[in-house]
Design the sequence.
């Protein structure tokens, strides 16, 4: 076989050459754009993160690690890291768990379950900015539906719930204007928007689980639904889970639309929702502090690449839990 | 059976929370300002005739207009004439709330322009993405050449870089060449879809070599093979990619927010809605919700019509 290949190659060296030239010709536009749009900006951000450059200035000074120093010493950026990580750490596990739960329930219901699948997927399709504005109305402290609904419970038996009792006595939370609630409301909307996406990925993963595995597990004495889930479903969904967690993390890191819609001026009450993408936008674009914006960009890229590399590593090991 | 009821109860509770904002958005877009403030009127609102205060105010006559109208009202004093004109204005300016909201959505802001911009931007992005990615994917899947592994490695590396994350350096580069506030700025960063290359390469790998060899026998050039042989076989994958791409860019807010400042002519739908919100006073909740509905609806309707394809398209990234 190898000999035949070799002889064909020997007979048509110009043919091989021609194919190589065409191939490079076909790939060149993509390669050029890849360099210009993806790789060069990373380098540009890397270089600028060591400078005090501003758009409109003719030159810049090298400032060494000063921008990064600032990121790790100023309280604003401490708040930025806290807000970003709180958001990621809350939204990722809950939206993955809800996605898995919804997928299992929907899957077990057969065809009727498709109705729920459609409904849960709607927020994924909808323009997040528009939906954020709707949520803002609903969360309005006085005319918003949410507080109005809570107020209806005042004077009824429901007042035994401490939250409602407090609200009826002292007024319900301001939600978006309240530094204790703002970040949690943001997380809630993130989960609301994203869990349907995870559900659909899990549903795709579930179709790949072999029926025989359940029979085999039952033979081995796995009688309860929980045992079957623990022994068969969860391990089989391992690769899906790795993927779902990674993509949820990357999406959560990139939260911006809701923050900008709710708090256009500076990241929420007491900067409690000052997430990284908003910081890049505010520092780099609005305030023209490109050095510091680039430093945040670099840090952001490191986080995201690190996550993806962990995912690839896990997938290549063909993870199976349990 | 009882177990199924529990499942339905849980799922219905979830569905209520998921649907609540969609319900409110539609409902507000039907209601009058008063009904929105008081929280009355059910889903559709009472649809009683309402008077548009801005419209009436615009028709408030000044001295000259009163003088001009005087012959029509013989023997009346100026203030009586003014009252008569204003009474007429109130009649002319009264509409049903739903009509008021949706007409205001188009009149107060150039919503049609925004929608058109959204269409232009998403369509050009998708078109260029295909134009760039398909030949590269074909080369990587079906042609043997020195450096192929390296090119593919580069594609895999670039998959790690989310374009939103490098928005700041991209913005600086565009500003340096004076391209901010142009259609080019809205489109350019998305012209290269590494994911598209990766996806189409995986798909092309499954196309039998015989098909390509036959085309070569017929004397087709490699470029012609890409468009006339590979493209037709790839329609299902391409459709899924189209949905993935269009949904992402119709809904994108971050990038347009950065490169488009000031000029309304370039606003995409989310930017337009954002500006509407900035301008709006309390009485404009209805028209704003009408705008939101108009922006969200095209994709939602398309999704409801072609659910399977949409879910395939959006979860494409699951194929990595």
Sequence:
């Amino acid at each position: 076989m190898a000999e035949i290949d070799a002889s064909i190659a020997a007979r048509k060296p110009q043919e091989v050459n021609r194919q190589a030239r065409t191939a490079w010709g076909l790939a060149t536009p993509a390669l050029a754009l890849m360099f210009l749009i993806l790789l060069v900006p990373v380098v540009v951000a890397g270089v600028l993160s060591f400078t005090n450059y501003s758009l409109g200035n003719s030159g810049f000074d090298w400032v060494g690690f000063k921008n990064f120093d600032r990121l790790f010493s100023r309280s604003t950026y401490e708040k930025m890291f806290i807000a970003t990580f709180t958001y990621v750490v809350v939204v990722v596990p809950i939206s993955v768990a809800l996605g898995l739960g919804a997928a299992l329930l929907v899957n077990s219901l057969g065809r009727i379950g498709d109705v729920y699948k459609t409904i849960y997927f709607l927020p994924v399709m909808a323009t997040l900015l528009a939906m954020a504005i709707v949520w803002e109305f609903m969360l309005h402290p006085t005319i918003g539906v949410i507080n109005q609904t809570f107020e209806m419970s005042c004077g009824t038996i429901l007042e035994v719930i401490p939250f409602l009792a407090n609200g009826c006595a002292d007024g319900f939370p301001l939600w978006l204007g309240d530094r204790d609630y703002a970040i949690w409301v943001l997380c809630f909307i993130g989960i609301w928007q994203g869990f349907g996406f995870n559900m659909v990925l899990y549903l795709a993963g579930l179709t790949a689980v072999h029926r025989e595995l359940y029979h085999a597990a039952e033979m081995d004495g796995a009688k309860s639904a929980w045992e079957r889930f623990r022994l068969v479903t969860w391990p089989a969904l391992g690769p899906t889970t790795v993927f779902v967690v990674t993509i949820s993390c990357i999406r959560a890191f990139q939260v911006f639309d809701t923050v900008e819609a709710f708090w256009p001026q500076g990241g929420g009450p007491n900067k409690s929702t000052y997430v990284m993408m908003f910081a890049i936008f505010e520092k780099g674009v609005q305030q023209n502090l490109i050095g510091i914006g680039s430093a945040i960009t670099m840090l952001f890229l490191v986080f995201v690449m690190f996550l993806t590399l962990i995912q690839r590593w896990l997938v290549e090991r063909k993870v199976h839990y349990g | 059976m009882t177990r199924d009821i529990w499942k339905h109860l849980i799922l219905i509770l979830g569905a209520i929370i998921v649907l609540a904002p969609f319900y409110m958005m539609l409902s507000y877009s039907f209601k009058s300002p008063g009904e929105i403030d008081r929280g009355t009127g059910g889903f559709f609102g009472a649809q009683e005739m309402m008077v548009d205060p801005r419209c009436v105010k615009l028709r408030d006559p000044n001295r000259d207009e009163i003088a001009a109208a005087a012959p029509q009202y013989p023997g009346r004093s100026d203030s009586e004439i003014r009252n008569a004109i204003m009474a007429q204005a109130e009649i002319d300016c009264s509409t049903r709330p739903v009509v008021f909201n949706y007409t205001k959505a188009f009149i107060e802001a150039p919503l049609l322009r925004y929608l058109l911009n959204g269409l232009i931007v998403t369509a050009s992005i998708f078109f260029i993405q295909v134009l760039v990615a398909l030949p590269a994917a074909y080369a990587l899947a079906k042609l043997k050449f020195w450096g192929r592994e390296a090119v593919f490695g580069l594609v895999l590396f670039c998959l790690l870089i989310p374009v939103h994350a490098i928005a700041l350096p991209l913005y600086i580069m565009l500003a340096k060449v004076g391209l901010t506030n142009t259609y080019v700025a809205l489109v350019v960063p998305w012209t290269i879809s590494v994911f598209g290359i990766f996806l189409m390469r995986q798909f092309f790998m499954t196309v039998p070599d015989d098909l390509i060899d036959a085309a070569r026998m017929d004397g087709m050039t490699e470029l012609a093979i890409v468009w006339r042989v590979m493209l037709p076989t790839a329609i299902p994958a391409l459709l899924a990619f189209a949905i993935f791409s269009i949904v992402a860019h119709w809904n994108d807010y971050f990038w347009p927010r950065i490169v488009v400042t000031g000029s309304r002519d370039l606003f995409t739908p989310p930017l337009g809605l954002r500006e509407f919100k900035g301008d709006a006073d309390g009485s404009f909740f209805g028209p704003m919700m009408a705008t939101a509905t108009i922006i969200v609806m095209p994709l939602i309707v398309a999704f409801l019509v072609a659910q399977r394809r949409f879910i395939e398209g959006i979860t494409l990234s699951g194929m990595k």
Chain A touches chain B through 85 residues (CB under 8 Å). Chain A has one domain: 66-316. The mean pLDDT of chain A is 87. Chain A has 15 helices and no strands.
